Predict the 3D structure of the following.
Amino acid sequence: MADVTPLLVATGLKRHFGGLRAVDGVDFSLPAGEIRAIIGPNGAGKTTFVSLLSGRLEPSEGRVTFAGEDVTRLPAYRRVQRGIAYTFQITNIYLTKSVADNVRVAVESRARRERGVEFEAATLEALQAVGLEDRAETPAGELAYGHQRLLEVAMGLALRPKLLILDEPTQGLSDAEIRAFIALVRRIAETATVLLIEHNMDVVMALADRITVLARGQVLAEGTPAEIRANSEVQAAYLGTPC
Amino acid sequence: MSRAAFARNAWLVLAVLAVLFSLQFVLPDYQVLMATRMMLLAVFALGFNALLGYVGLLSLGHALFFACGLYASGLTVYHFGWGLPAAFVFAVGASAVLALLIGAVALRTIRVSFMIVTLMFAQVGALTVLYFAAWTNGQEGLSLPASARVADLGVATLDLTDALTRYNIAYGLLAASLLILLVYLGSARGRIATAVRDNEGRTEMLGFNVFAAKLEMFVLSGAMSGAAGAAYGLLFGYLGATFASFQYSIEPLLFTLLGGAGTLLGPLVGVLFMVGLIDKLSELTTAYLLVIGVVLIVLILWFPKGILGTVRERWLPWLM
Ligand SMILES: Nc1ncnc2c1ncn2[C@@H]1O[C@H](COP(=O)(O)OP(=O)(O)OP(=O)(O)O)[C@@H](O)[C@H]1O
Ligand SMILES: [Mg+2]
């Protein structure tokens, strides 16, 4: 592979909550264009780790560089402006606004940075990408749970991010919804780098180019799906049984 | 909000303004005076509601901005002999600057702490008015001299002893305030404000500086409240420390909750009902402040959406 600077690099990243070392010295590098999955047992520090990347939390130690720039001290909203989009582990949308208005807020964010954003076209495009265009005028709070998750992804897409971070996006989705979701992420990955926290191993194996395994705040292993599957340490810590 | 919904709101506001304008031809003298007061209090409440209703911040210290406008205009007129238009503009600017400074501090807190911090600032303001009694004449207050009862606009002079002149000035200020809010809320900035109100964390993670959005609304709110205070002082020619007191922080809250927080016309509706009620009651009893308290409690417990908030929920979902 060509020697390109990675899109995102974390160096010596730590975050402590009192005595608890939620993220404890993580070095991490993500090349542009990749779909990377982060897996690990509950409480491994996955959400905390990506929160440090997106700027929702400040690190106790360490650095984050994005697209060649040090963003460690930047507040979250500025990182979003530079192209890091984040969907929450617990669905987080504007419940009283219509589906379209939810997306419009995201489009507005992009319109502030880029010229010539076609407002309604961009809104429709993001809704079509997740298949919610028929529900545009429905209040978001009335959507089924799976659709709310998709709406949140649509908002992320409407930002046209360089990096899209998805925190357990398939949690609570039906099998059919999960299949559609896998196809959606493949399409997103044509234009963006995707960092995916996921418990569902079928989804991980179907999507990930590489997998990073976190346990107790540290990187336990990193490699291709096949390598991770074969890694006995990972099996002991996480997969439990050999697959 | 869709274009059609915005147009409906615009027509509604214009219709209300047309009615208010024509009232001056039918109301008896005493009620013209009362309507003038109501419109100025409505401007105050509109400013308060901009903050509570559209970014979800409950200030318990808005008397500070009302009093800032009142004293900034009144004192420059009284002590330095400024013309009324200049004093008014200065007062609105001073209120905006004060709101910027206080907002920069208070907006670092949320919910109850925010209420307490704004309350504390307003207490400081009230004490300041009393402390500088040499300038403000403390509790007793100041009456503006007869020379300050005319406003020289350059092209025309306005006689402020005339009730209809005062009515129309107050009307103009109310119309301007409503139209500013209508345009602001209909714009992209308004969408961001309500996004902050509905879900702060989500809005930040869509790339918006939530603090700046709140501060912007805080300044707009403070300036509008200051404009109301300045007009109140100049039109009625009296500056008193009561206007800086806690009661004047609670009143806009009451008007807003009664009329419907987060509805454009709610504060105006709230003022009409509440001031009308207080006026009737104060003929009967001196305990009308008790009534205010009871109304506040009833509202919060059983009628939290207020009049227009309920109308919106039941019948007119397009109301802004
Ligand atoms: N704000 C916080 N304050 C204190 N402790 C926290 C905080 N956030 C997370 N933790 C703790 O840090 C550890 C890592 O949490 P985190 O949410 O990052 O795990 P996770 O890998 O995302 O788990 P899950 O798979 O359950 O989502 C946990 O022990 C959690 O209790
Ligand atoms: Mg998590």
The mean pLDDT of chain A is 92.
